[in-house]
Design brief:
The protein is built from 4 helices and no strands.
Amino acid sequence: TESLNKSWLLRETLRLLDQRHHSVSLSSIAEKAGVKPSWLRMFAAGKISGASVVSVEAVYNVLADKPLGE
């Protein structure tokens, strides 16, 4: 069920990105998550297939304001 967990993480991270407050920029999220802003823009637009779980989890942790699993 690792792929099921990855699917959930992808969907939830994209949902959080979509629902973020307008004052929170993708650049600031990318900086906090340790990913490139260009990667995050493409990920948020759904243009990256097979995104690294590590990168997606880092973005999720920033958006959810807590580490995954807590």
